[in-house]
Structures are given as C-alpha cells and as structure tokens.
Amino acid sequence: MTAADGTRIPQTVRRASAALGLTPVSWTSPPFGLSAAERHIVLFDNGTSAFVKGATDLETAAWLANELRLLEQVGGRFGPEIIDWLNDDQLPVLVTEDLSAAYWPAASGTTRWRAGDVDAVLATLAQLRALPAVSSLTPVPWPRPWWGRLVERRIPARLGLCSLDWLDRHGPEIIALDEHATPDNRSIVHGDVRSDNLCLLPGGQVRLVDWSDSGLGHPLHDLITLLPMLHLEGGPRPASVLRDPVDMIVRLAGLIIARAVSRREMPEWLRDVLRRLAVIHFAWVTEIIGLQ
Q1: Residues of the chain with pLDDT > 70: what percent?
Q2: What is the rounded distance in angstroms from the CA atom of residue 34 to the CA atom of residue 25?
Q3: pLDDT (tens digit, 9 = 90+) per residue, 163-193?
Q4: Domain boundary among 38, 63, 96
Q5: Do 81 and 202 belong together in one domain?
Q6: Is the Cα torsion angle 144, 147, 150, 151 positive or negative in sign?
Q7: What is the C-alpha separation between 159 and 217, in angstroms, rounded?
Q8: What is the residue-wise DSSP string for 112-165?
Q9: Which CATH number covers residue 73?
Q10: How far apart are CA 216 and CA 184, in angstroms?
Q11: pLDDT, tens only, 241-262
Q12: Mean pLDDT over all residues of the chain?
C-alpha cells in the first residue's frame, strides 16, 4: 500500500490508520528510542496526529504490552494518553497521543534545560511515587549486588576513580552496604527516566515517554537513576538533592559502574556516557558515606 505520492506506507502505520479509520498523509521516525520497536509520528488527513509504536519481535511485544499496562494507570497525567491498542494475530501496535509539539530537552542532540524545567521534573517524580501501588503491575528488575566483584577486580581503581589503597581500605564498607540493599516494590516507577524520555507541555507539565521498563519498585528508584544524568547535563550534584537511602544509591551505582566496563557490544558514545556516569555515581557514593 502506498501514499498519494507513491511512498510505501509502513505496515505499522497502515494498521494504525485502518483501526482509526483515517488516511495517513505523512509519517516520520523520531530520533529517539534505543529498542528495536518501530516508531512513527503520523499525520492524518483530518489534521490530527498520533504516535505509533509497533513491536518487531516477541521481546518488543512484551515491552509494548508492559507499556500499555502502565499507561492505563498514568497516561494523560504522567505519560501520553492511549488512543488505541492493536493486538490481533500480528505483533501489537500501541497508538498514543503525539507529544512532538512539546518541548523536548534532548531534541537538538545537546540537552538544553530551560529555567524551571529540572524543578518541574523533580516535582513530577515526587507526584508519581506518591501514587498508590497497583498489584497487577510487575516489579522492575532488581539489580544484583555488583560491588563485591567490582572491588575484587579493582575496577574503580582501573577506571581512575580511586587508588588501590583507598579501595582496600573502604571497599568492604561499600560491599556491606550493597549487600544490605533489598527490593521495596511499593511505588510505580518509570524505570528509565532520562532527558530524552521526557518532554514539557506549554503549561509546564512533564510527560514521560517509553514506559517499557516500568512497573513497581522503590519510591526513589527513578530519582536515584536520574540525578547523575542531570548532573552530567549541568544539573545539581546528586548528594545535594538526595543522601538516603544509602544502600539503594550504592546498589544502583554499582550497576552503572559495571555497565561502564561491560564487554557487551554498545555504541562508543553510549559507553562514553556510562563511564562519565560512573565517575558521578562513585563521587555520590563516597560523599554520602563520608569517604572523600
């Protein structure tokens, strides 16, 4: 099936348009999203638009189904509104509100936070974690304790984060805190809050997108994972915003440092970001424990 100008219409766009009873005029693929899901912003013949996200395999189908479950709880307030869900004999397609007219801090390739944006994001996360937990949601993945292996392999020293002597003296204390951390699945969490997964409406309301990794988790999970990225983008030092719970901060810091040295294939830009985040996470841990 082709458009009026002869361009072939992607199957995901074709299915969504048929379900809505509309004709697609144009469609573009937004420059965000790291998963293999197919994404399109579609303009229809009646002047409306929608964001169409289609699964490409069984893994992305499961992620999309999870995103649907969360948006049924938070869509329209914390995330985009659901327009339609196609789940017939083909891979599913999720159709949601088009937020492309909002302000996206990371849209230009260089993250640009305006005055008040960071405060609005932090306030939104506080409102999100205040929502009552929904028992039908699944827990977000709880990371394993990494610090034992990191210290044993001298990873922080190899990354230039500390000396070997420092690691020998303080490593056991950090390992003990890491092993003390336990899951606390009493809040709805997004699971992947970062600048390219959020936008701000003209009235200043924040909308989070890509809820594939969301579920139930620790009330401060999203804030802990966001603060180092904010600092990397010119925001406040993490310890100036949050100093507790120490064990949770230590656990998530270990995960980031482990990812920074992982042998898993990834784009070089992503590995560079992880290494820079590892520096920030390590400084955060040492500051709140008092080991600077």
Answers
A1: 96
A2: 26
A3: 999 999 999 999 999 999 999 999 999 999 9
A4: 96
A5: no
A6: negative
A7: 30
A8: -PPTTHHHHHHHHHHHHHTSPP-TTSPBPPPPPP-HHHHHHTTHHHHTTSS-HH
A9: 3.30.200.20
A10: 8
A11: 999 999 999 999 999 999 999 9
A12: 93
